[in-house]
Amino acid sequence: MSSLTVTGVTRSFPSTAPGRAATRAVDDVTLHVPHGSFTTVLGPSGCGKTTLLRLVAGFLQPESGSIAFGDEVVAGDGVRPMPPQTRRVGYVPQEGALFPHLDVAANIAFGLPRAARAAGGGDRVAEMLDLVELPADFRDRRPDELSGGQQQRVALARSLAPQPALVLLDEPFSSLDAGLRGSTARAVRRALQATNTTAVLVTHDQNEALSLADQVAVMRAGRLVQSAPPSEVYLSPTDPAVAEFVGRAVVLPGTADAAHATCALGEVVLTEPTEGPVSLMIRPEQVHVDLSHTAGDKVIGVRGTVEEVSYYGHDCAVQVRLDEGTSVLARMSGVLHPAAGDRVHLRVTGLVRAYHPTEAL
Ligand SMILES: Nc1ncnc2c1ncn2[C@@H]1O[C@H](COP(=O)(O)OP(=O)(O)OP(=O)(O)O)[C@@H](O)[C@H]1O
């Protein structure tokens, strides 16, 4: 097993339409995935996520830049590219990865050395089933006798059986429904952690990217715009566009004065001191809603009227029109919440990220 280092990798595809410029699917991407860690690559459709994964797997070659597993360069830097079959990479695609005519045991044993395969995978199959939290007697089932989530666990077991240096997962949960998706993702995460396997998972699902990863790498139009731990990407996104991509955000104009800034929601405390006109990125759960009818004599905050409440059970989203005209979104517990038309007071809790106009896209 090893770390993965992608350095300045670029890969374009020629346009099929005459006169159209080539698509730069991956553009000067640099990314380090430490040994035994889990990185999610997050970005909208067409931003280059799968192309990046295919470059790492060896199905495509970079035009420039290099890819290394540990200290070993596997592509670029003038070395002869190492073929996919010798890179020791496990690849888990979206769905349909299992051989339908083989049972679970034969699917898992597929990548093992011939002798182990001939012996039916031996203990390795049992070990892998245990690792992905499937019952031992599933070994005789065929893929069409398994649910979608169980099939994806078998696909992971198959990729882990030969002890790969790196596991690449390309939207492996996208065909599963919401409940199964969460539980399968967590089981996969546990299996990777238990084997200390370096892994990269591609997704366009923000919740999946944030909840599973040690590191989130955000891509936009072929470029890597931020790679950082999930909480940093969420609370201190590199620009307002990343902020809005990884969650709901209230972006307000303001004026910074050292550690503070003023905006339509009053005075806020900044993550880093700065000066002058800024865009302020506030997460809806940072907007504290005081219900005026339950507040004491002295109410701190900015006045507004609730326009709309979306109730989700565990929490709710409250759209408030401030008296000065701006509409802002707050997220609060679903236990005690206001109704449309209620008068409320809002104030911002926690630190707020400020962007200068040049950083705002
Ligand atoms: N073989 C190819 N030939 C030509 N263009 C390609 C090829 N593969 C990908 N592209 C283009 O490169 C860009 C990046 O594609 P890629 O599949 O990497 O995006 P993605 O982020 O994985 O998208 P999705 O989330 O929809 O799978 C897109 O504009 C796509 O049309």
TrEMBL record:
Protein name, entry field: ABC transporter ATP-binding protein
Start and end residues of each ABC transporter domain: 4-246
One example GO MF annotation: ATP binding
SUPFAM superfamilies registered for this protein in UniProt: MOP-like, P-loop containing nucleoside triphosphate hydrolases
Key words, A-Z: ATP-binding, Cell membrane, Ion transport, Iron, Iron transport, Membrane, Nucleotide-binding, Transport
Highest taxon in the source lineage: Bacteria
Entry-linked Pfam families: ABC_tran (PF00005), TOBE_2 (PF08402)
